[in-house]
Amino acid sequence: MTDATIFNEKDGTTCTQAAGDTILRAALRAGQGYSYECNSGGCGGCKFELVSGEIETLWADAPGLTERDRKRGRHLACQCRARGPVTIKAATAAEYQPKILPKRQRAHLLATRDITHDIREFRFLAEQDAEFLPGQFAMLDLPGVESSRAYSLANTGNRQCEWHFQVRRVLHGKGTHTLFEKLAVGDDIGLDGPYGVAYLRTKSPRDIVCVAGGSGLAPMVSIARGAAESGLLTERKLYFFYGARTPRDVCGEALLRTLEGYGDRIVYIPVVSLPGDKDEWSGASGYVHDTVAHVLPAELASYEFYFAGPPPMTQALQELLMVGHKVPFEQIHFDRFF
Fold first, then answer.
1. Which long-range contacts (CB under 8 A, 24 or more apart) does 102-105 make?
2. At what angle do helices 288-295 and 311-318 cross, to 10 degrees?
3. What are the pLDDT digits (tens) for 15-70?
4. CATH topology of domain 207-333
5. Is the pTM of this model over 0.90?
6. Structural fold of domain 103-195
């Protein structure tokens, strides 16, 4: 497919979609602030209306669109490609303008290591750079997998060109099956990034709260590493909550221990929802959002919140913070993945 021009009637901007790109990726690559979160068809944050021209839909049944959306002729920019010049109506905002323009490059698997029984770290060495913000994610094009997969970064931007991902094995998941079972050290993949708007806000004066569940560990570890490396924790504290299902799922502490300020400026609080008997688990139990509400020493509205994990956890945290404690929306940062 040749390059296509995309005109957004809502803000008057124009961008060029290169071969292989979606409408959303083309816009973000051009520095435009198209509304989005997951870049994978799940959240519905990148809905648009087609005014003129022809588009190709990559995933017709993407859960980010409701039946009502479809009846109204709405589409997902992350799941559509322009087939020639198109005019659309897409929401844009300054907060979605990428701080670092995403780009495609090749990378090869450098090393792996197990974090838990079902979470593994994959370290890739890219051919160009590793420029991204703490808390962002990248799209991986894996051999034998039709569509790109979004995975959050666990490390911070670096000159060694390394991109580290901590991925949880998903039953019947094509992407994780390839990563865990088929990809060998030295194998090449396609890497496109960075993406995501839930990155570390370095100018915030507030103490930081990170809440992770499952493979939401990766972006929260990246946030913690970024905060420590940038010197933010010389004057602030970081509370790191990890919500696990059982005691053997608990992780994160070993990664945080290597950071300056651990145990003083960095406080780690694991929470288990199915703790078993007291001999197996003596720490906090229940739902992680309930522990957040009871453990933090100050009013919740005085913190900067970052979280990543299963949808029920992120939904519960949103309700807790925005409805229950009136935490301003601009102090809450997460990317919705489904």
1. 102/25, 102/28, 102/29, 102/192, 102/193, 102/194, 102/195, 103/29, 103/128, 103/192, 103/193, 104/20, 104/190, 104/191, 104/192, 105/129, 105/190, 105/191, 105/192
2. 30
3. 999 999 999 999 999 999 999 999 999 999 999 999 999 999 999 999 999 999 99
4. Rossmann fold (3.40.50)
5. yes
6. Elongation Factor Tu (Ef-tu); domain 3 (2.40.30)
